[in-house]
Amino acid sequence: MQSETQSLEHYWMPFTANRQFKSKPRMLAEAQGMYYKDTNGRPVLDGTAGLWCCNAGHGRKEISQAVSRQIHQMDYAPSFQMGHPLAFELAERLAQISPEGLNKVFFTNSGSESVDSALKIAINYHRARGESTRTRFIGRELGYHGVGFGGISVGGIGGNRKTFSQQLLPGVDHLPHTLDMQGNAFSRGMPKTGAEKADVLEQLVALHGAENIAAVIVEPMSGSAGVILPPEGYLQRLREITKKHGILLIFDEVITGFGRVGDAFASQRWGVTPDMITTAKALNNGAIPMGAVLIDDAIYDASMQGPDGIELFHGYTYSGHPVAAAAAIASLDIYQNEQLFERSRELEGYFEEAVHSLKGLPNIIDIRNIGLVGGIQFSPSEEGVGKRGFGIFEHCFANGTLVRATADIIAISPPLIIDKQQIDQIVNTLGDAIRAVG
Ligand code: PXG
Ligand code: PLP
Fold first, then answer.
1. Angle, in degrees to the nearest 10, between helices 85-97 and 322-337
2. Which of 117, 220, 293, 370 is the right S-S partner for 266, CB 3.0 to 4.6 Å?
């Protein structure tokens, strides 16, 4: 419980307007099912699964009990040159639900680390095959790949890069983003047009030479930049072009993984299999920091060919942490037992109708959706970019619903256990907020 005298001065909060927050804090203290409680005991409906993490909802006993059991049995085990059974068990479980061929797993502690790991694995793979000139990466405008120097280099959100622009990885290009507000505003699900934007990859190959390009990394659906869906056929084209030129394709599924878009992974929803998938967040329902890279057998096998010894000079103190792994196995059990990935697909139609019913309210210029994720985009107010979005977020929170604002886009991504009435509640609160903020 926060006491009246609690100092807020010492904690430098991430991706937060610290001075603004500390002058008017929003504090969460408890969570159960679909609801948070703030420090005054007021319930807040979770329209964001935390930060896209808690797909099975909050306070799941199966997870807390697994964590408690494991921390008693063995709190920590070294991860270099030592193993423990749970990490192997979790890797096997992940291989069972991952797309075909992606049967190897490298553990990390966050999405950012998963991205850095995947980029390094790509370079290591090409070197192992004698193609050591393949070092360039291709990301995409508006992409979010976490905050490591690797991730911001391939990332395409200007605000996250500008301060560090002289220190980014060399040899990175960006594909154009796929948001087309002229042609595709208010699309339901995948937009119809724009697949040809993938063809820019051919131009980059012509410019640099395929023999110099290691990998292309994209979010199959951009989450952070405001729910930007791939046009029909776009991901297939990226797959065809990368395959043709021996370039690895990495899908960053930190947000789209574990049921968010109506299948275990977006890769399966859209029938396109990359060479690696980066994950984190809902991997263990957000309970303990953990991420993982799912890797095609061919990459692993090629990397095991050199002289006997360490095959990849990379890893984290907490890779495959036993307590995080216990939480992940318990989470996968819940996802499976309650068929939550299927539930996300089943509720998609209702959710789609609900979010698109907001069309026509003041200043809405686009609404986008897939699975249990929705994005509502507003024109910026005269006060500046982001003010309208933040005002709507604040109004919703004051009225008992948590949504997420990125600039003037509101994203909704509730736990997959949500019911129809709760979907209505989110949309109704949002509608009131939009009318009130104007
Ligand atoms: N890749 C993708 C696609 C992500 O969405 C990361 C990497 C980085 O993960 P970590 O665990 O290092 O934060 C992410 C994280 C938002 C929001 O509001 C999104 C993320 C994180 C925080 C807020 O959209 N995505
Ligand atoms: N910095 C120092 C001084 C370390 O000794 C280590 C790990 O041993 C690290 C950073 C990296 O920490 P981690 O493995 O948790 O990423």
1. 30
2. 220
Nearest ligand to the C-alpha atom of residue 314: 2
Element (H, E) at 296: strand 291-296
Among all bound ligands, the one having the nearest atom to the CA of 289 is 1
Q: Which residues are CB-contacts of 370 (< 8 A; sequence separation ≥ 6)? A: 189, 190, 221, 227, 229, 261, 262, 269, 348
User: Same fold for the domain at 18-56+339-437 and the one at 64-337?
Assistant: no
d(CA 137, CA 144): 14
Q: Is CATH 3.40.640.10 correct for 64-337?
A: yes
**Residues 63-113 pLDDT 10s:** 999 999 999 999 999 999 999 999 999 999 999 999 999 999 999 999 999
Superfamily of domain 18-56+339-437: Aspartate Aminotransferase, domain 1 (3.90.1150.10)
Residue 395, amino acid:
H
> What is the pTM assigned to this prediction?
0.97
In angstroms, what CA-CA distances link 335 with 9, 85, 144, 332, 416?
A: 39, 22, 26, 5, 9
Query: Per-domain residue ranges for the chain?
Result: 18-56+339-437, 64-337
What is the whole-number distance in angstroms between the Cα of residue 72 and the centre of ligand 1? 31
Taking the CA of residue 291 as reference, the ligand 1 atom at the shortest distance is: 11
Write the pLDDT tens digit of every residue in 118-139.
999 999 999 999 999 999 999 9
State in Å: Cα 412 to ligand 1 middle: 15
Q: Whose CA is nearest to atom 21 of ligand 1?
A: 51
Q: How many CB atoms lie within 10 A of CB 18?
A: 13
Alpha-carbon distance of 163 to 16, in angstroms, equals 16
Backbone angles phi, psi at 34, to 5 degrees: -90, 0
